[in-house]
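Before the break, one more example. Copy the sequence into your notebook; we will annotate it together after we see the structure.
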Amino acid sequence: MVSLFITGTDTDVGKTVVTSLLTAYFHKKGQNVIPYKPVQSGALEVEGKLVAPDIEIYKRALPKVNEKMINTYLLKKASSPHLAAREENIQIYPSVIIENIRLLEKQHDIVLVEGAGGLIVPLKDDGYSIIHLIKDANIPVLLVARAGLGTINHTILSVMAMREAGIEIAGIIMNQLAKEDQVIEQDNRKMIEKITNIPVIGVVPYIENVETLFQEDDLLNEILSSLQLKEIKI
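Here is what the structure looks like once it is written out:
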């Protein structure tokens, strides 16, 4: 078994899309892969039932996924998990999350753990954050970063924080959240690799409708083949 933690330089940077793409990639290779979203805030109520938006995307990449296995804390408020948990009278236990990761590792070839927001997003009121969870779980990280303007600073600061914490970095994937200047994006990639000495294993192109991505095999295969996923150091 192998575990990989997918974190981002910020919230809404594309972690769920990347996690789903990786799920599809390993599934197509015949490996027993499972995505895991330990903490989901911003749950939606559908027909009287709370639904995790990120898991709905996972299900498009892996339709038979067991929802009960891949989410531990489901919170209504679209906020930092510590605040949502406090308002909803829920205690988040990192030890429970790590136990679930270990259980999933025993049952699957690959476990893809998606974080919440960026590295310094608190899970608890005492300041225990995503970076602490990664450190305690002791699994390598794939960092998802924006492709466009401003990403050099955010990406390199994230790398610095992980290196200071002694966290293994498996690689960086950049995500086109909008159609921007290609010269800027190409230079961003070049400078991030030069300064961090960590490979950018690919750029996910701008996807207008993520919901249909996994219904279009040609588009999905084109995107997967454009990423150097074999270079992920796990």
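The first strand starts at residue 2 and ends at 8. The chain has nine helices and nine strands. Try to locate both features in your own notes.
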